[in-house]
Structure formats: structure tokens, C-alpha cells
Write the C-alpha cells for this entry.
Amino acid sequence: MLTDNAVPEQQQPELSAKVIMLETTDKRQIAVPVADIMSCSQLVPKIKANETIKLPHISSRVLAIVLSYLRHHKGDSYDGDMAIVTLDDPRDADMVDMSNNDLLQTLMAADMLGCDQLLVFTNKIMAKRIEGKTEDEVRSMFDVDAIGTGEDEKDDDGEADGEDDDFEEMDEDDVLEEDDAMENEEPAK
């Protein structure tokens, strides 16, 4: 039973061995039977009583698609062998043709929920879509223009994005001193 009605926090059902509460980016709280997401083995053991798992950037519509996939594949045996996950299963036809935005949300949901089989499936769809495309075509397909283009972009403190402000740069003398110290260390026994 999937309930997608928003439930006020004080009226939420207690987390039991049977239901997990998931909250989407559109603030819908969805009670999901544990049996439907057992393939998300990384998630289930970590959930505490009365905890609602927030799924930022995942709409309730995409979460319904994810849950449908998990229900369809509930009995499948997936042992980590990526070769057994194919794009040919008729139960997955709608997912293979989903929009790029929905595909990205599904990929994020699979990662957040720890659903390895779904993660492999969405990665295979993604790989098929970007095969043979240029970097610019891929950026356009997935609207990732905000992600750097390879040129160092400067942030507010004048450093290139991605540089860690907590570490100072080492000059050549510092590097030589560190190399000498490493050479003089005794090997671990």
C-alpha cells in the first residue's frame, strides 16, 4: 500500500518493521512498506523509529516511479553482477524512455536509498544516452551548464572552485622537507 498524502508530523505513523516514511522535495510524505524497498539494503538497517527520510531533489512523481521499479523487481536476485541488469525488461519500458530530468532524479534516488540494482539500471540508461555525444551535447541534454567547463572558475576569495580553503599551498622547500622526512622514516613492520 503506497500512501502519498501529506501527513502532519504529529500524526505520522510510528516507524515499524512494516513502514518507512520518505519525504520528497515537494514536501509529500510517503509511507512505504519495508517489503517494497528491501532491495535497498543499505537504507533499511539505518532507519530509526519515527524517522522520516528526506529525499532532496526527488519529486513525489519520480519517487512513485522508483517505488514501482522496486516492486516489479522485488523477487529478482541481484548479487552485484551488472551484466544481469538489462534495459530489455518489458516492466521497465517506461523508465527507459523517461525524460533526462526524471532520469537524473531516479539516479539520485537510487543512490540516496542505496538501491544498487536500480543504480546500475539508471547508469546503463544514462550511458546509452550519452554514448557518442560531445561534452557540450551532454551538458545541453542534462542542463549542466552551471558545472564548470574545464576552465578554472574563480570563487569569491579568488581561488578556483573546488580548491580547499583549509589547506595552504606548499612551496618547493616544503615539498623537499616533506620528501626528506618520508625517506628517513622507518618502514612499518
